[in-house]
Amino acid sequence: MARRLTFPNEIYSGPGALDHLAEIPGRRVLLVADPFLTTLGIVERAVELLRCAERRVDVYDGVIPDPNRRSCEQAAAVASELEPDLIVALGGGSAIDTAKVLWVKYEHPKLDWQKLTTFFALPPLRQKARLVAIPTTSGTGSEVSYAAMVTNETVELSIKECVLSYDLCPDVVIADPTLTLSVPPNVTAWTGFDVLSHALEASVSRFASDITTGLASRAVRLVVRWLPVAYMDGRNLEARVHLQQASMIAGMAMASAALGVMHSIAHALGTTFHYHHGLACAFAMTQTVAFNSQVAAGNYAELARTALGIDVAEPLLACHRLVEMLDDLKCQVNIPLSLQAAGVDAQRFERARGQLVHLSSLDANRPSNPRDYTDKTLERLLAGIGSGVISWD
Ligand SMILES: NC(=O)c1ccc[n+]([C@@H]2O[C@H](COP(=O)([O-])OP(=O)(O)OC[C@H]3O[C@@H](n4cnc5c(N)ncnc54)[C@H](O)[C@@H]3O)[C@@H](O)[C@H]2O)c1
Ligand SMILES: [Zn+2]
Prior knowledge:
This protein is of the alpha/beta class. Helix content is about 50%, strand content about 10%. The protein has a 6-stranded parallel sheet, with helices on both faces. Zinc ion binds near residues 194, 277 and 281.
């Protein structure tokens, strides 16, 4: 089946890239920012750059982690009032996704959530504004993707939904690694595992191609090499440069090849236990790689060889080695190997199991997973994620 690959038109990357903000055209700018970046002075720097170019600049910094329908609607109401012709998203995935949904709702105020969350059903954007994305974490790849993740908190079991449209791909990305120097070690580790999760899933997706597997391989190589460095020394610019690039190229692979059961389970763990998205992906990672190995051992083996130099003849053995390396990396950045090890109460987990299976089974990433599965499979995978015992069948 033919697949469309869509990437942002302009990407400015490298230390000092933020300065380019001053040159982007737009007379009325709405800066959508993570509130923590205001306390770090990063919002002020961005505003100063924008103001030099003599235009009106307003800031909305009411972004919340893991945005939901309500928080996006609140942000969109601000846009409707201010009528920007340039929207600048500054922050991690939560800020960029908030800005994307705000953008859609601002351009098409009458669009309801049903239509918003129907894949590739949005009317065209850019009638009123363009979008610039400035990532300050290295993880989601939202700056290069045409997706926005929004929690639907209006239903009994909150569920993570995806707004998907090629038009949602930002016009301009400003990837300045100096903005990520302040990311604390835990968020550095979790977001790094989000990058890995995108690369691993894009490598074995039903929609994988030479383009996406090439991107994914490089991303895995960079994360395994540089994540422990950035975790130990957040001010190491070289490590931050490579992790930011890894995040973008894994994001491109993800956007083009889609994801799978690792993310389906991670989304359920995220909404149920309120884990950071990358940490939830790390919890779901090894079990789902082992599960998919039954049908995708060749793809994982190639990834293991090209990215990590794991050169063994037997593909399943390569998968075992890959999983060992992933667990080793978790240990280096203090990510527990199971929910039990993370201190999740066994009874609480048991009570949530049905809900986790239900939410995972509804997740939008299901069709691209290389191996079909049932609710029973999900139960088995979740049991392993709870205990840390990996099952290879
Ligand atoms: N749209 C996509 O393609 C896509 C892909 C993957 C994940 N996501 C979504 O993105 C969200 C997660 O984004 P995230 O992982 O970037 O986390 P985040 O945006 O929620 O930020 C995590 C934390 O890091 C802090 N932070 C951000 N930048 C910082 C900096 N420079 N210095 C210090 N602290 C900083 C924030 O204040 C926050 O406390 C989730 O909702 C997830 O579902 C979207
Ligand atoms: Zn992810």
